[in-house]
Specification:
- By secondary structure, this protein is an alpha/beta fold.
- It folds into three domains: about 200 residues, 3-Layer(bba) Sandwich (FAD/NAD(P)-binding domain); about 120 residues, FAD/NAD(P)-binding domain (3-Layer(bba) Sandwich), CATH 3.50.50; about 110 residues, FAD/NAD-linked reductase, C-terminal dimerisation domain (Enolase-like, domain 1), CATH 3.30.390.
- The chain contains 13 helices and 22 strands.
- The strands form five sheets. Strands 1, 2, 3, 4, 5, 6 and 16 form a seven-stranded mixed beta sheet that branches. Strands 17-18-21-20-19-22 form a six-stranded antiparallel beta sheet, sandwiched between helices.
- It is globular and about 65 Å long.
- It starts with a strand and ends with a strand.
- It binds flavin-adenine dinucleotide (FAD).
- The site of flavin-adenine dinucleotide has 35 residues, from helix 1, strand 2, helix 2, helix 3 and helix 9.
Amino acid sequence: MRYDLLVIGGGSGGVRAARIAANHGARVALVEQYRMGGTCVIRGCVPKKLMVYASRFAQEFEEAAGFGWTLGERRFDWAQLKARRDAEVARIEAIYRSNLLKAGVTLFDARAVLQDAHTVRLSDGSTLAADTILVATGGWPDAGPPVPGQELAIDSNGFFELAQQPRRVVVQGAGYIALELACVLRLLGSEVTVVLRAAQILRGFDEELRTHLAQELASVGIRFLAGHSITRIEHAGTASDADAFGALAVHMEHAGGTEVLEADCVLRALGRKPNTQGLGLEALGVVLDAAGAVVVDAHSRSSVPSVYAVGDVTNRVNLTPMAIREGHAFADSVFGKTPRVVDHTLVPSAVFTTPELGTVGLTEEQALQQYPQLDVYRTVFRPMKATLSGHTSKVFFKLLVDRVSDRVLGFHAVGPDTGEMAQLVGVTLQLGATKAAFDATLAVHPTAAEELVTLRTPAVRHNL
Ligand code: FAD
């Protein structure tokens, strides 16, 4: 049978597109080579956040003493957590599958390769034909430049397979995934060294935010080796503990020379690249960019009219809510007679380190390029809970305001629940909120977020 739509990839974008298109009456098939739910459900957002929750108990236990608690012996069981986490992931995966079936989507558990502009070949040798093909194959951990011994390291996929907690970990990379996993391991008691080539973590985020978070992460005991590159990984010869890990020697170079670190686990998190290799796209004339991403127009249409692409494979904004939105807009546009484009600006996001980072809108550096009359409101304070817990962590809030229009252009924060705050501040920015509106909003007391509506004096007034 010929389908109206054939979706390659059962991740965030593909699943949403398939379901909505089917709801619009299209005959839809979806092909998934691994597990339904894709990166987010199987080895991304979901299992990651569960690990973050697990790790944060360690800090809560420490802080409890200041509030009069005496706790008994504490023991953490990595294998038990992994089993429970994996069961939860399997539960969500099953829901994804059943929701697709309920919507009337035909599922194929196979790898798909494009044969021509309307035909896909599956790994079992069969072919499927459709009027429209949606490529939603996501991304994959970037191996980076080849390094001898890199096969001894794991990537973020490997992190979720670890059967035991490694005691000494070297994390290479300083993007959000590297830092989140570093924090999980550190809070659970591992010794963690983050090796980064750059001078600072989190490229692309607000500069002050980067600095503040780096200080906070150092204070939870993460060691940073900035300006370092790993040149070689090898077995150290000596077995470390009586556990599954053989000791590794991690050779590094930096401006001042070379250095060797011993570790039980090297986790390389060097970014992600679009999953387009071997898909048959180039042979079909689908234009890819230098990073290998499918080049699409505002309607997610590729250079071949019957082939569309959404999500990480297009390397626009590589986050689950964006893949979902692109998938939904595609289905509405092509099968629902309601064409619409997705706005890729104003993206609220969080980094689930501990402390957490929340952000939405322009960074100070970006804002200054368009709005030279920029007021920067900033506050750094000790949260109320720390007064008794004795925790040294400080909350950081920054609000960027265009003096000409009074519009709030950006919100950047580090501290507990700032990811939740970014979601709500995002709504206000979407509405075009002014600083006067923030000022007119009554505080919720006592909260950390109330500091956002009581920012009176700019810390910096650019171009005045
Ligand atoms: P994916 O979810 O990657 O799905 C693509 C699917 O296509 C996969 O299931 C794959 O198996 C399948 N596939 C690929 N090629 C083929 C083929 N040839 N044939 C058949 N099937 C194929 N985002 C957030 O918003 N918040 C977070 O907190 C967050 N945390 C993350 C943490 C980690 C560790 C990682 C790795 C990512 C995280 N992300 C997070 C990013 C998020 O997971 C992705 O942006 C999102 O999953 C992209 O969805 P997608 O549909 O484009 O691709």
